Every structure is written in structure tokens, then in C-alpha cells.
Amino acid sequence: MIISASRRTDIPAFYSEWFFGRLKKGFAEVKNPFNFSLKRVSLKPEDVDCFVFWTKNPKPMLERLEELKGYEYYFQFTLNSYGADIEKNVPSKYDELIDTFKALSERIGSKRLVWRYDPILATKKYTSEYHTEWFGKLARELKGAFDACVISFIDSYAKTEKRFRENGVRELTEAEILKIAENFSEISKEYGFKINTCAESADLSRFGIGHSNCIDRERIEALTGKLLEVKKDKYQRKECGCCESTDIGAYNTCIHKCVYCYANGAEKTAENNFNRHNVNSSVLI
User: Fold this and answer.
1) How many domains does the chain have?
2) Residue 284 falls within a domain, yes or no?
3) pLDDT (average), residues 126-154
């Protein structure tokens, strides 16, 4: 079984104490987001093939990675170019997150670390030129600290439309996507890493950019040294190449307060849920 921790919230940033507590207990319970029934998920080493961590700030986990001994895992670390106007409660890139990224890489090795520069959105400030400049800066800072880079372009969802209007956010045009792909490709060649897209239908192969699988069977098989009998995740978008996994997070619980977040509705709901969190509970909220 592959455990996703989590597409729905940032467990490393906000719920790491709960996560390590559940490891000691050997299980967690997950609420179905549609009917609220509970599912018990084993977290015993013999039942978990791999943990896949999704995070914008794994710093709270850095001093506790020893507790993952006996498990295979890798991190997907989202580090992009936005300020507090878009990512309201995410720490500063240059004051904290770049150092955190490097520190994590030193502890776990670059093979267990994927750099995500996503989602790429457009405003009057965040232009193609802006993204290119910052992607280059970050690539230079992070050189050698990660195994692969994943990018994606923003999509609008019903729950994000109002936030997009209020903050002047829009999807990129095809011309902008192609220009960014071309520029990013040149930067990746300069610093020696591979770029893939996440859940994108666009064919960017002319720039040497392929399609990635965030829950990646091949990566997990390389880490574990064993073949996995897993299928494509039928619950994800058709463009998504992820294999099936079990997510132990919960929607409306992340307090990074990102304008583009698809996993949160109202900010107040996420704050209320965060305040209801009981670190000793078997379920996140």
C-alpha cells in the first residue's frame, strides 16, 4: 500500500506531530470526504510500501526523520516564486524555505526529493518573464539538491473562481505556456535536471519536457527494490498518471491560505478545522 500524506493538506507543515504519533500506534483513520464514514488505514512497516509526502514546508519534520526508519518514502516539495499576496501563510523563500530544502536534501538525499514549481499562474505581477527569472534563481540555489522537477499550469475550479477574481489571477494562454516551457527547458539544461509536467494534456516534448507521475510506481520500485502490483488511480483526472494510493489527509485543513488552493473552500473553515485538531486522535480532524 502506498500512503499519500497528503494531496488534501500539508501534513509535514501542520500535522507532523499527529503523523508520528499515528506511526507509533500503527494506524490512522480517514474520513471519506463525501459520506464521512471512517476507514482504518494500517501504518505498520510491513503494510506500507512507501510514504509520499506533499509539502510547502517540511521543517517541522527535519529533526524527526529517524522515526521513519523501516519505511520507504520521498518528498514532493513545492517551492515557487509567489509572495504573501498569493501564498499568505507560507514562509519566505529566501529567508527560510531554500535553506529548509537544502537541509532536507542533506538528510535524506536528492533521490528522495522532487522539486515542484507549481501551479504556474498569471497576474499583472506574475508574468512569463517573472516566472522565468525566478525559476532560474531557484534552480541555481537548489542545484544538486533534488532528483527531478515537476511543473503544472493553474486550472480554475468552482471553489477558486472567486479568489481568482479578487486577486487578479488567471490561467495562462497557450502562447505563455509554450514560452515558459521553452525558457524553463533552457534553464534545466544549464543546471542539469529533468522537467516533467503534472496532470497536463499539453505536449511539451519539443522542449524535452515529459509527463510525470507524482505517485510514481517506478520511483517507488527503485526505492523499495521490489515490483508493485498497482493500477492507475481511477479517482484522479484523466491526465494524471499517478498510481493508486491511500490518502490520510483531510480537505479544508491546510492554513497556508494559498489563493489557488483546490483543497480548501473558505479560509475560515480551514482555520476552524485546524483549531479542532487533536494530536492524539486517530483521525486528523
Assistant:
1) 1
2) no
3) 96
